[in-house]
What we know:
Elements: E1 7-12, E2 18-22, H1 34-51, E3 61-65, H2 71-79, E4 84-89, H3 92-98, H4 102-108, E5 113-117, H5 121-128, H6 131-134, E6 137-141, H7 143-148, H8 153-192, E7 206-210, H9 220-225, E8 230-235, H10 236-244, E9 251-254, E10 277-281, H11 286-294, E11 298-303, H12 307-315, E12 321-322, H13 330-341, E13 345-349, E14 355-356, H14 366-373, H15 381-389, E15 395-396, E16 401-403, H16 405-420, E17 424-428, E18 431-435, H17 451-460, H18 471-478, H19 488-502
Parallel strand pairs: 3-4, 3-6, 4-5, 7-8, 7-13, 8-9, 9-10, 10-11, 11-12
Antiparallel strand pairs: 1-2, 13-18, 14-16, 15-16, 17-18
Amino acid sequence: MKIEAIYKEISEAKNGSLIPLLKNGSSIESKYNPERDAENLLALTIKTDEDENKDFSDEAFFVVLGTGSGIFIQKLADKYTNAKIIALEATAEDLQLIKSIPAIKELEKSERIIFSTIENLHTTIINNYIPALHGNLRVIEQKAWCNVNSQLLDFIKKQIELAVQDISADFSVQSHFGKIWQFNILANLKHAENQINKINPETDKTAVIVAAGPSLDKKIEALKSRRSELYIIATDTAFSVLSKKGINSDAVVSIDGQSVSFNHFFTRSNTAAKDTHFLFDLCANSSAVNHIISKGFNVSFFVTGHPLSLYADSFSDRSFLKLYSGAGTVTITAIDFAVKSGFKNIEVYGADFSYSNGKAYTKGTYLDALYSKFQSRIKNSQTDFDRLMFRTELEKLSEKRTSTQTLLRYKESLLEYLKNNGLSFTDKDEVYFIKNNSKSKLLSNTKAFNYELFLASIKKENPQSIKQIFLPYIAWLRKNKKYKNYSFNEFLKLAYSSFVSYNK
């Protein structure tokens, strides 16, 4: 879509304010008193908030369609003192012109105000909008600007919708797991007091990442025949499958915070090799961690993206492993571990990101035992697997293969990871072959974590200064209808109170 500049020059209104003129000589603001126009629009914005029983006085997120002289943007920022505002203009040429206005130059100094063109709007929202912090995104239209760009309004609104959808997928996960994650992190940090990373992977071997997709059924014998030349890194779901087949894993990676993930480790940890190294995200299920530690296995913790985990990592001179989870799939984390360990040759099995021949997983996962346990004459285990697969709409990839938006998002995330890290790869016969030429080397840590000092430091902080670490928990609070009219400050007080109460 062709987007053209709309302004031609800067002019002075009758009251002395500088305003941009359109190419036809008119203006999107009053040529006599643009301040009055801005005050009227602000009054309408405030009235809308009051009618909807919303208070955006502490935190908010606005997208203003039309920047113009910047007078309205300034008044909006003065009223909503902690709000983040995207000030939109049609083109970079328009932005360059209005940035010659002193008032706009002053707005540029504020971290709360981001100038954007229509072309960059989607990315600008993605990089700045945090639902747990800002609540709902608000769009404010400068009507005269919208009239001039009427042919672009549908495109603009579509960009906003797509950005919000992309962010909402992550926010939905946070709102579901926010409380669980915080509990797990605190419990796992307690374990971290006694766990020192001792990771010495055999990087001269080929690293094989094993996920639990249906295609793994056909690869088991090949893994057995090559076992001596491989360093096997299993995802948590695949760990029990390999154990049942008599294949020991050198390392096992888990990021799942749900209690159900305990099932991956409960029975098969008894048959694992004693030198198997278990790597857990600090967000991972703490009961599973406790079980593995009680069995005497070597455990290392790593951090991905949770702000409380990152705060713990930066709190002292201890350094947790830093691994990448992409859109939230453990397969990418396992690959990242192999890459950062320095393996040159990496193969990935069972990363199907799809259902094959009506199968959700390879044979031998804990779901097989769970679903078989509750079979009856009118409902067998396949009934439960079908319910699992059909919980969201399926997309047909081929005659025998289907997938979901979530699984496809995982695959896109993996491909993006490989590209961004300069990793060459081929995808052949349902196996990824990755070449890693980086010089990275995963370092072991020899310092214990001081849990009590960590808690004391947080309790001394002003909650506002560390609000980022509570955002996933606040996302969980926001889904509770009884808090629907709470301001961010009220959410922050609840989150902080819960943290302090848990650790008394």
